[in-house]
Design goal:
The chain is mainly α. The protein contains six helices and no strands. The protein has two domains: 1-37; 39-129, no CATH class. 52% of the residues lie in helices and 0% in strands. It starts with a helix and ends in an 18-residue tail after the last helix. Belongs to the UPF0357 family.
Length: 129
């Protein structure tokens, strides 16, 4: 009985370590995409503001260069999950950066029960006195 518990614990530890270090392990591409199903195989992380600006993640209304690069911002860049989602929207729907940001923002609002105008969609919400 103790042998099987030890074997189960070792297997669980091995699976956790494989998942944690999946980015640096020399795994076949098919297995790597199966393990890290959250990010597509053709996605390369953009970790700095310069990389993100070069990839088109900037506009006149959201000027990453003026607000972050020229001022010497020490942060690493925009949110990776948001960047990935916006790039996917831009690719899939053929829209520019600002339109993709608006689409993502409206999706987030809808997930939280808010319509695009900013009003709650809950019929019990008090919106005026």
């Amino acid at each position: 009985m103790l042998f099987y518990i030890s074997l189960l614990a070792f297997t669980a530890l091995l699976v956790m370590l494989l998942y944690r270090y999946r980015a640096v392990l020399p795994l076949p591409k098919r297995l790597r995409s199966f393990i890290s199903h959250s990010s597509p195989a053709n996605y390369a992380p953009l970790s700095t503001f310069s990389d993100q600006a070069a990839a088109g993640m900037t506009s006149s209304t959201f000027d990453v260069e003026a607000d972050n690069i020229r001022e010497g911002d020490v942060r690493t860049g925009l949110d990776e999950a948001g960047t990935r989602e916006i790039m996917e929207i831009m690719r899939r729907e053929g829209v520019n950066f600002d339109q993709a940001r608006l689409i993502r923002h409206n999706r987030i609002l809808a997930q939280n029960g808010i319509d695009p105008s900013g009003m709650p969609m809950d019929s019990k919400a008090i919106t005026h006195l």
